[in-house]
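Protein 1 of 2
SEQ + STRUCT:
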Amino acid sequence: MAAFIKKLFKNRKSDNAQPQPDVSALNPDKPDELNALIELARSAETNSQRGVAIDRIPHIKHLIPLYSEASATVRNRLAGRISALASQHPEQVEQARAALSDPQQQALVHQLCQSADMDAEQISAETDPQKLLSLAIEGKTAAVRLAAAERIEGEDELMAVQRAAKGRDKGVYQLTKKRLQMLRQEKDRERAVQSAIDDLIRQAEEHAKTDNLQLYAARVESLQSQWKNLSSAASNDQHTAFLTALDVCNRRVREVEETSAREAESHHKQEERKATLDLLRDTLNSLREAMPERGPSLSSLDALQKTQENRWMEATRESEVAKAEQKDYQALMLELRHYIGSVQRLQQQQDTLTSLVDAESPDSAELRQLLEAIDWPGGYAQPPALETAARKLGQAREVRKTQTSDQKTQVKALDDLLEKLEKALEQDQYTESRHLHKQAQHAFNALDHKHASQRQARLTLLGRQLQDLQDWRGFATRPKQEELCEAMEYLATQHMEPEAKATHIKELQQEWRDLGGSSDQSLWQRFKKASDIAYEPCHEYFAAKSELKHVNIDKRQAICDQLADFVDNADWQNADWKAVERIHRVARQEWRDAWPVDFKANRPLQKRFDHLLKQVEAPLNEERQKNEASKQAIVERAQALIEHEPLGDAMEQAKALQKEWQGIGITRHREDRKLWQDFRAACDAIFARRDAQRAEQAAEDTVALDTLKQAIEDSRQQREAAQGDLATLRQLQQALRNTPAPRRIPAPVSDELATEKAALDQTIQQLERGQQVADWEARLHAGNSQPGDGSNLPDPLPSPREIAIRLEIATGLPSPEEDQELRMKQQVERLAAGLTGGNGSAGSAEDEINRLIDCWCAQSIEPSDAENLMPRLRNALANWQG
């Protein structure tokens, strides 16, 4: 029969889709109603209904099985209820462990029955990682799970927590997702930094080996600047590798600077020598063409001679001077000295010359002797007095005078050379002495017999002294020359960079030349053979380098052809500007990579390449400027949104501007960076307003949360003090409902609020039921003297015995054994009539009891029946009161 009733009840429930019963009317002390509460806690339509059902379940052992299958929100409610029961009834913890055989459920008992303070102690810096993982997944509150998840560091553990929290705990899921993203971004950043360090080391090593010295020092400075930004992340080995390469680069920079300085100094000296020769040549030419108006200035000519001698001496010091250049200088300076000597002699004999020229019949012999003494150089413009004297002497005499003057000039030049040679020999200047001896020999050969015989002995003596100096010098320099031979032979056996080797070879050869060579031909042949052997690999290298220059010229020619083809066929109206920019960048890079080249062959290619680049850069710059103007407009619009209201609309527009920014094409890097900084500053200002509002709202929520906590505590204290004051309890209930709450209530506070509301509801309900029961008992005691509203009473009225049985059914009280059959009949009738019985709502149960009291009061009851049934009625009402 019971199975039939259960089946019938189930079918009618599904057919009629009756509403779920009032949770507060279910008595957890009764097994059936306790099962109904557990089912509602598991599958009620709303979380609020589930929460109320959870708060009505009285034992931990019934709540633990619900926890494993509950959602995150319901889990928080369950955890709060379990924790509260563990605090109020500690004996339930051991009872739950004894009742539950599943190890996982027993572990939940251990975890969820700990106090909140214990959880806080566990979640600390010393907490075991495995314990943190367990708390982050199975923590009894959202705060515990979040705190545990925040302390998890491992990527694998965070992924495990994320998988467990997905769809169940939004806060933990978002936290772990953000942490994982930050970890991955940090790893990506570290990999990028290490890659940049390795690339910088590679560039430094390649730069240390490159033959391209163009902008070499600037590139070294750039590498050093980049290393400063990355050195903190580099290992010791990376530091060593970079600094080693950088040291090589710095040495090459110093070598390049020294070479450049020497070349600049050499060029400067060469220019000075050229200027000296030009000035001497121009001065002598002007003296040949015309005589100055006031005659030749001896002081000016003497100053010119001394300054140019000093200038030439400084320009030739520690420098190689070509023989032709030296010869030109000596010839010009000798001619200038001759001219200056003639001017001096002219000024000394000016009075005598004037008296002879002015005389009507001058002494020809005296005049001729005077002109020979003055010895004016031929080919130069003569002063008027000399021209007049020459006319008076006649043409034949002038010719003889010229011949005599030439001999004197040669004699003077030879004497000067012999004087210099003698001084050079005294100072042991072998190279200078040998050069002067050759010049003196040439001057001696140009003299006639008369003049040459007078100087033959002196020249022969100086020649012997030169030979002695040569013999002594050869003896003194031979050990050094042998060392140079050994150094060259050793250099020939060494493996080193060809350019460095060639430099060393030149240095040794220059030292050999500085020693003045060697009279020992075997020693010279030894040195030359070693030089040839040492230079052989250098020759191959420079030949290969020359071939490489030709190859690079071909590459640059191909780059120009490809770039020209692109320029000729480009559709600038519909161009892919990023591709154009990439082509421009790659072309420049490939052009730089095609190095070294022959400068002469590269000159027209360079002009063509520069022209083609300008043709590509012009539309690129136009597009960049257009895009920069668009970005500037976006910046201005963003800046206008800083004070825009409402804030939500400003934020949406800012996000739209960010997308619009991303869609804009190419710009110049420096300009784009500046515009981006302005745009980012405007966006930050907009979202800073949001953060300020959130902070303000958070402060308000904090105040509201503190107010709510205080209201809950005040309600709890006043509820306990109110005892049976129903009016006070209702005021507390209304005050708790009217207390402002924050937007998000923490789970512990939410649990406390729900518990306090449930306690108020239960206390008020018990007091209201007590008053109702007292009223019903008063009516029962009065009998039919106070009948109720008879319009809702059945006809016929149920018998007193039936009234007692129905009242027991309505209040959930068992009937005596003798009335079981009648009770079953009443239950079937109730089910057929669509009533819910003990599982109905509180209102329907109260109405049922009220109708039954009305039925009792509406009829006359036999005293014997009243005496027998009244205790049963009172017991039923007391059971309903609870």
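Protein 2 of 2
SEQ + STRUCT:
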Amino acid sequence: MLRLEAWLEVWVAKAEDFLSGGEKAEIYLRCVRAALADPETERLLGKRDGVSGDAVLERMRTATYHRYATLPCPSTALDEAVAKQGEIQRRHERAARETDWNWGGICFLIVLAALSILSFSGLLALLVAGLVAAAVVFALLWRGSHAGTNLVGCLIAGGLRISWLVQRIEVGVRAAQWGDALQNKGTGPVVAQLVRHMLGDDPDSLFIPDHFEWGLRAPRESLFFVENGARRQLERKLSHIADGTIAVCGPRGVGKTTLLDQSVKKAGFGLIIQAPATYTPHDFLLSLSVQLCEKYLRDGNHDVPEFTRLSPTRKLLRRAKVQAKRLGRWGSFAVPAAALLVLGLSASVRSLYAQYATSVADFAGTHAERIRDDVVEIWQGYAVVASVCVTVVGIAWWKARHAAWLPRLLGGMWTSGSRPLGLLLACSSVVSLLFDEQIRQQILHQHRIQPDDLTRTAAYTAGLTLAWWVLRLARDADAVLPLGRREISLERVFRPLAAAAGMCLLLYLIKNPQTHSLLADPENPLRLVGMVTGVLVAKAGGWRPRPEEPVLVTKCRDHLYRLQTIQQSTNGLTTGAAQILSLGSTHTTSISTVLPNYPELVEDFRNLLQRIAIEKAGQGKTVVIAIDEVDRLGTDAQALAFLSEIKAILGVPHVYYLISVAEDVGAAFVRRGLPHRDVTDSSLDDIIHVQPSTIAESRAVLAERSQALKDPYVILAHALSGGILRDLLRYGLQIREIQDKTQLHELTDLARHLILEELSESFAGFRTLLSKQQWTHNTSEVLASFRILASYLRDPCLCTEAEVLHALAEFAFYAHSTPPRAATATDQPSSAADQEISSEARQLIDEASAYAYFSLTLLDIFSTARFERRTHMAAATGPDGDPERLAEARQELGISPYSARPLIDSIRKAWSLPLGPTTGSRPPLLIAECPRHGNMSMD
């Protein structure tokens, strides 16, 4: 729909320029309005004072911007066409003034007379009439008649008017071409640059969300996958080894699951399974075996066995219902089709039977009698040679019971002979039309009587046949028509059209008198019988019995039955003697299968997977088994224990194992042999470290998912997330939510809300962790400080924002030897209270202070105007001014708050920010009325 609207807009603009008559001012204004209506430009209008559509249009009317816009698009061709049109117009007006007659009426009468002669008498008569008229005009001019002069003047004026119309078309074409070039190369770029110039500093800091950003709403959608370094590294490793186990490690949320999922999708055969949080190796391998069998069956379009709790009666009824539906659908088409065929061909078949039945019966009787006589002679011993031959043939037939050459020979003869025979029969039935004398006489008769009608009928028939054939080809094409995000199959579009074209062709052939007489030939039903019989014989030659189920499919089914069902067999024996009193005994034996134990399950799984891998390798496909979420097992010791347990299923030839592990396991593999060996040495063949994304990769990811997040917002989301893709997408969506909630568009406002909101949630989490520590009356003020800061940050207002930010700065800059004070407290806690704080609580306080220090740095950077200029100034100071350093600081906070503080200090120096709490460190607040309390506030 969007493509159709764009196409219509382009052609409507061309039509407007064509009808403008070469007025360049009108075309210029139309191009300016089209540039203002561009979505990328229109979304910026009205977001800042003085930047509106009327203001931009007024600027574009000035001579300076008019020259800038038209300079890349010279209008020389249009000016020449307009000048030529004006010259023709002046010559026409002069010729019209020189004649006394009404040139328009005279020319109209001449054209009307010419059309009448052409319609009623033909082209030759028109030529003769033209020569006569030319001779008359020449005679009048020779005699100096006033009528001849006026007539010639009228003809000249009419010819010039026609020339003017042709030139007007050329002017319209030139105007449309110039307007298209002006819109694309002139007004479009100039208007976009002018709007950004009128916005002032940091035009990209405006956030104008799209109507629907599916990329941010669906973080796991594979359509928005962007190739990165980890993906390319994994591809290289897989291409250099034939099989093996590769571990994928990295922080949580960095994209390990997405990497495994994409690898499985690109493999020829693969599956991904989640490692259980509380694992048992037997259950895990049981689930993996079931998924492997089901995946193989589904890829081969085989039915997966369904194990339900239905009773045998209900299963039988359900199966009967399915068969009844299938039979009903088949019968609804087969019975009417058979009835119509019998009704249409019965007369021809009966005539064939009456004509050839006696001859066929005589032939069969003669040969049957001859065979009977030969058998009697052999039986009575009169044909000794024949007896020996028959005996040898019998022995050979018995010996051939285990050989497949005879059925193969018969099948090959049937396959190779039936198709040519059927096609020959069908083609002979059609070719017989050419040798039918009656049909030839009818066609010759119609050609002599109505040649034009016969030609028209042939043309219409050929056209309808061609249309029907083209629509059938389009219907059978395996293609789709893209329509926005949807795709429409051509088969669904052209199937009804092809059927309609076929019906039109059939109705035309039936209703047309010429073709109706040909269809009514009495030999046509017999020809149709031959065609149907030939087609059936040709189809029968391609029939094959249903192939036997592959051995590997049967093995997968048996494996599923064994793993998911308990089979039981019972045998009973009853003996007794029936007297007045019955005496007897009953013996019952019950046998049931037992699920395989872990070693047996491992052996079965390896054998089955190896056979699948060999089959897929023969088809040029790779087999990938991905085990995800191993890092959910808890500690690195549990993950290593899990690898030790499943080590038995690894190392299958032609199979790649991809295992998602925590960073601790990856570190253990990297330092293998230093100073000791562990399970990673023998379980893993290689490892890939998925690092947090760089700012360039974050730009690519967010650009693929949202067009509204410009570079300042990408840097903000990248800094807050530390390059973790999961958090990057979450912050991108959170920016959209904050804008929707506050209806603000500036980076300074949205960044402040986002950072304070994250600080509030983080402080609430730290307070929950601190509440688990031991506190006294002297040290409880720490919890109160966290509570007050979290409550103020969660919903700040203009009255308290300056005070809260000042308290936050003091908390962020405090020396880790001194605990923070409350936002409303005036005195520091005593040294005795300081000593009562435990080391665990001190660690949490230091982590919270470091995170507050980092958040305060982001506030100082992103909530201050002129972000672009300050970014360039910071980058000029060195690597510490690179926005990538902000993400590195966020990553360092996850390691240690003490190593993160020096990095944040260097970043603040590069951005010219103070290294201590000062009153001038925050941007001043404007005088405004607090919507909550109604008073005036100014910092």
